[in-house]
Amino acid sequence: MNQAAMNRAAKKSLLFAIAAFAAGTAQADAMNPAALRQTVEQFLQVQSAGLPGKVTVTVGNIDARMKLAACPAPEAFLMPGSKAWGKTTVGVRCAAPTPWTVYIQANVGVLGNYIAAATPLSQGQAITEGQLVTMQGDLATLPASIATDKAQVLGRTSNVSISAGTPLRLDALRSQPVVKNGEKVRLVSSGNGFSVSSEGKAVANAADGQVVQVRTAAGQAVSGIARAGGLVEVAF
């Protein structure tokens, strides 16, 4: 090989080396997709702490072709109206040295217990212990108002007929009235060192803890909190 050929080969090798170095530097200065995934996963773990069940966080695919500048402190956030529950979208942003924002799909599964009908339930039928069964599943795939404890539904009635195996929704159940329209009730009021009671007549149905209006013997309308046993607590 003559000197000219050797010089050309040396130059070519040098150019290859410079290109490889530049590519490596650019790769080092890019945001690692694994770091993005970890940021989203850790954020959702914190946001979902305290949920009623075993939480599993799954982060969606991150496009490896996405070129983002390296960020020393990426910040994850939820979009307005979003929550760390079921399918969700998490934003990740960088403030410096190069500002950018990306959005990453994720799923938060919550394995826990919920209450379902063990037998068919008729509309208006008071629910008893033997009509209930505890089941396990992903609560994030069920309605937000799903019952997770039998105590939440015992004694209540359904607004519709429910088939066996159907998860029970609290917004589809009605509490049994402890005060009924037209029935006599006892108005009670107590405080520091005193207690007063009188009789009246309820003008509506009310479950325990609900506000109900009562008409006194003198014809005055008062409002109070319905309690079991036909009592209405009134604040004076």
UniProtKB/TrEMBL annotation:
- Family note: Belongs to the FlgA family.
Q: What is this protein called?
A: Flagella basal body P-ring formation protein FlgA
Q: Name one GO biological process term.
A: bacterial-type flagellum assembly
Please provide the record's keywords in A-Z order: Bacterial flagellum biogenesis, Cell projection, Cilium, Flagellum, Periplasm, Signal
Cellular component annotations (GO), alphabetically ordered:
periplasmic space
Report the leader peptide range: 1-28
Q: Note whether Cell cycle occurs among the keywords.
A: no
SAF domain residues are: 112-174
Q: Which organism is it from?
A: Pseudoduganella lurida
Is the Signal keyword given for this protein? yes
Which cellular compartments is it found in?
A: Periplasm
- List the CDD domains: SAF_CpaB_FlgA_like
| Predominant cellular place of this UniProt entry's protein | periplasm
Pfam families assigned to the protein according to its UniProt record, in alphabetical order:
ChapFlgA, ChapFlgA_N
Gene3D superfamilies documented for this protein: 2.30.30.760, Antifreeze-like/N-acetylneuraminic acid synthase C-terminal domain (3.90.1210.10)
Function per UniProt: Involved in the assembly process of the P-ring formation. It may associate with FlgF on the rod constituting a structure essential for the P-ring assembly or may act as a modulator protein for the P-ring assembly.
